[in-house]
Design goal:
0% strand, mainly alpha
Length: 458
């Protein structure tokens, strides 16, 4: 079996070295042999465990009705709700997970209930309550210092809060406690954010191979890894490879919404509007995420279907109102939607700035910068954009925003540089915004006239 063969090679990839210091951080993952690539790991359908998971959830709920003081059952129930949240994107599971975790801790306090505290911190991460997740994960590292997972949760929260040096240390501690799928995926994400794409791919490959080598490979985890490979390829403008990874994710997990939406995006980048619309429609039917809905509206607009576009844009607004009432974590997506479509500029800027007071990551800074530009707050846009670029994250959208901000303040040379970099990274990064970037770059580039071109001697 190929996976068993790869497992032998993966023994060479184990994390054992200890590193220190943000400035010198380099995740120790030896080079993956050229023959070992993610697309060389065959994608096959994995077991659909939805029915079994739902059966376990019903069993635990029945047990708690007869034994409401069973704190372990509450913790397990919270964990299964989080699993269903990851698999479906249905935010109702988030509320159920938070409630079950809190019930567990109400029965037995955290000092004697590490399981309850762990799922609470994980649920807080999913709810974007990153400060609470950080605090609870820090408590977990004190209560259970030999386990790696608490450091992973802590690092995740710190990344979202923009505390990158502290996140680096948390992941260092996690890796020092052993190699695992969850460790490798976190190291991959951190490497990519810092612009270290080769180490990011090596860590992600290791995570995928380890997941596939499990006795019962977890379907959602394997699909997520394949989707992430697609996201890296798309960010680099390699649309063919990205599509292959997205299709592999969908082979693993048919109907996986992240891969469906990303497949729609890559079809749009390759000029197939009809195929892109079809994929986004399927994704939205499964999960009406506002980013998916807005993208579908944009594609309808490009196809000349203004009525269909308006319907999707109205749905984005409806989701915004519902999310504000229910606490669903869509604020940043909605702020960026408004900025991209030149709507509610001051409202979008206020929302992004309010979130950035706590969640100070590079994408939060980017949201502040982009919405500030659209609201006419140019000094705020410039300052936030520098924060957004501080890690060198290889995302064309960041450089596009930087270029448009520089153009607005009259910094022509800087604007050209940023826009050129955005389009060199990913020339079709967005079906509506990429053409705007190209048009802006053309306007910034001095025209070459025949008088300016020296003629060849006759």
């Amino acid at each position: 079996m190929l996976v068993r063969f790869l497992a032998l090679g993966l023994t060479l990839l184990c994390l054992r070295a200890i590193w220190s210091g943000w400035g010198t951080f380099a995740a120790p993952s030896p080079a993956v042999p050229a023959t070992l690539r993610a697309l060389d790991l065959p994608a096959v359908p994995l077991a659909d465990e939805d029915g079994a998971t739902d059966q376990v959830i019903r069993y635990l709920e029945d047990r708690l009705r007869s034994d409401p003081e069973n704190y372990r059952a509450y913790s397990k129930l919270a964990g299964y709700h989080l699993q269903r949240l990851r698999e479906t994107g249905n935010v109702q599971y988030l509320g159920l997970a938070l409630g079950a975790a809190r019930h567990s801790l109400a029965v037995i306090p955290e000092a004697r209930n590490i399981g309850g505290l762990t799922v609470l911190a994980q649920a807080e991460l999913a709810a974007h309550d990153f400060a609470a997740a950080r605090d609870h994960a820090g408590r977990l590292t004190a209560l259970d210092p030999d386990k790696s997972l608490p450091y992973g949760i802590l690092g995740d929260a710190l990344l979202e809060l923009g505390a990158y040096e502290e996140a680096n240390e948390a992941f260092r501690q996690m890796a020092a406690r052993g190699q695992s799928v969850v460790t490798e995926t976190r190291l991959a994400r951190l490497s990519w954010l810092r612009g270290d794409t080769d180490p990011a791919q090596r860590h992600l490959f290791t995570a995928l191979a380890l997941a596939l080598d499990a006795p019962a490979p977890p379907r959602e985890t394997v699909a997520w890894c394949r989707w992430q490979f697609g996201e890296m390829a798309f960010a680099a403008g390699d649309y063919e490879t990205a599509e292959r990874h997205y299709r592999a994710a969908l082979t693993t997990f048919p109907g996986y919404t992240n891969a469906l939406a990303s497949l729609g995006r890559v079809r749009a980048a390759r000029g197939d509007l009809a195929g892109a619309i079809e994929r986004y429609q399927e994704a939205v039917r499964r999960l009406p995420d506002p980013a998916f809905v807005a993208a579908l509206g944009d594609l309808h607009r490009l196809a000349g279907r203004e009525r269909d576009a308006a319907t999707q844009y109205a749905l984005v607004e409806q989701i915004g109102h519902l999310s504000a009432a229910s606490g669903a974590p869509y604020n940043r997506q909605l702020a960026l939607y408004y900025a991209d479509h030149d709507l509610k500029a001051e409202e979008a800027y206020a929302s992004a700035a309010r979130e950035y007071e706590v969640r100070r990551d590079v994408y939060g800074a980017d949201a502040v910068a982009w919405t500030a530009l659209k609201a006419g707050h140019l000094a705020a846009a410039q300052g936030a954009m520098q924060e957004a670029l501080r890690l060198g994250t290889p995302d064309a959208r960041l450089y596009y925003h930087a270029g448009m901000i520089a153009r607005s303040v009259g910094e022509g040379a800087a604007a050209r540089g940023y826009l050129q970099r955005a389009l060199a990274l990913n020339p079709q990064f967005d079906p509506l915004q990429a053409p705007i970037a190209r048009q802006a770059l053309e306007q910034l580039t001095p025209a070459v006239t025949s008088a300016a071109v020296p003629t060849a001697p006759r």
